[in-house]
Amino acid sequence: MSESLHSLTRRNLLRDAARRGAAAAIAASGIGLLSGTAAGAGSGIARPSRPSPHAPAAADDADQYDILLARVKFASDTSVPDVWNTHPGAERNLLEALANAVRCKVKLPQGVNCDNPYYGEERHFNAVVDFDGAANVEDYPFLVMTAEGYFKFTASQKANLKKYLDGGGFVFMDDCIAGVNTDFFYQSAYKLLEEVHGRGSVRRVPNEHEVFHNVFDLGKIGLPHISGVNHGAQGIWRGDRLAVILSSTDVHCGWTDRQHRWYQGGNGRHTHEEAIKFGINMIMYVLSH
Fold first, then answer.
1. Which residues pair with 129 in a beta bridge?
2. Is 276 strand, coil or helix?
3. Which candidate, 2, 277, 287, 289, has a CA 20 to 30 Å from the CA of 19?
C-alpha cells in the first residue's frame, strides 16, 4: 500500500512492537488494555513529539493516523436485517483498546457507542470503501467486511478484491449471525474467495499462527467464538502473508459488546475481551507484514 515517508516512520514503531510481542509492548506501556481509558497521566512510553492517540481528524487521514479501519460497503440479502453497516461502535471500541495497549495514534469514529446507532452512516466509520473501483481501497491496509445474508460480487469487484489483496491489503470477513446456527455470509465469502484465488485456496489458520500470539496469547482458544457456527479461522495467503481472515463467529459483535449485555455465556464460549484481543492481534499482524 502507498504510504508517505512520515507515515512510514511513525508506523515502524508499531511494527517493532508487534515483532517484540506482548511482553515488551504491554510492560512498556503500563496502560489498561481494555479499560477504554489510559491508566493515568504520565503512564506509557514517553514520546513528547507524538500527537495524542485521540487527535482530531486531519485532511489526509491515511497520512495522519497509524491505522484506519475501513468498512466495506456491498450488497447482500436483505431478508435478514444486518447488512454492511451494522454496529459502527465495534470499530470504535477496538481502536480505543488498541490505542490504550500500544499508544498508537488512531482516529476514533464519532457519534457511536456500543450499539448506538445500530446501523451506521458513512460518517460513523473511519472510512467506507467498496470494490466497485480499486483506487478507493488503496490507502487502507485493514478492511472490515460483515453482514448476515448471502451476497455475490461482480466480475469487476472480484478483480479489484484480488488486486487489493495481491497489493498488500488485508480483509477481515466476519459473519454477523442471523440466528444461533446460521452462516449465510460465511458461505458466500468462502465461495467468493475460492472464485477469486482458486479452489482449495481457503485454508484453516492454525492456532500456532502468529496472529494468535503476537500481542495476546490466544493459542488455546484460536478464533474467539462469540455466536453462531464455529468453523474456525479460515484464511487466504499471498505468499507467506495472511491476507484474509474469514470468521463465522461474529467477532465484530464481540467488539461491540463492551457492557457484556449480549454474549456473556451466550451462544459461543468467548466474550468482548477475547474478541478485542484478537482484533488487536490482527491489526498488529497487518502492521508488521
1. 72
2. helix
3. 2
CB 162 within 8 A of CB 196: yes
207-211 — which CB contacts under 8 Å span 24+ positions?
A: 209/242, 210/285, 211/242, 211/245, 211/281, 211/282, 211/285
> By residue range, what is the domain housing residue 176?
5-287
Q: What CATH number corresponds to the domain at position 109?
A: 3.40.50.12140
Phi, psi of 157 (to 5 degrees): -65, -40
pLDDT number for residue 261 = 76
Instruction: Cite the beta strand spans of the chain per DSSP E.
Output: 69-72, 127-129, 142-147, 170-175, 203-204, 234-238, 241-247
94, three cell numbers: 477496538
Q: Are 136 and 62 in contact (CB under 8 A)?
A: no
- The answer to whether 53 and 126 are in contact (CB under 8 A) is no
Q: Taking all residues of the chain, what is their mean pLDDT, rounded to a whole number?
A: 81
Interior angle at CA 98, CA 59 and CA 83, nearest 5: 75
Q: What is the mean pLDDT of residues 168-176?
A: 97
Full-model pTM: 0.83
Residue identified by cell 456491498 is 74
Task: For residue 141, say if its preceding peptide bond is cis, omega within 30 degrees of 0.
Answer: no
What residue type is assigned to position 170 of the chain? F
Asked whether 258 and 279 are in contact (CB, 8 A), the reply is: no
CA atoms of 267 and 230, how far apart (whole Å): 10
**Could you give the residue ranges of the DSSP H alpha helices within 72-228?**
89-102, 155-166, 184-197
Q: Containing H/E element for 251?
A: helix 251-256
- State residue 3 phi and psi, 5-degree precision: -140, 150
Q: How many domains does the chain have?
A: 1
The answer to whether the Cα torsion of 140, 201, 190, 134 is positive or negative is positive
| Whether pLDDT at 115 is above 60 | yes
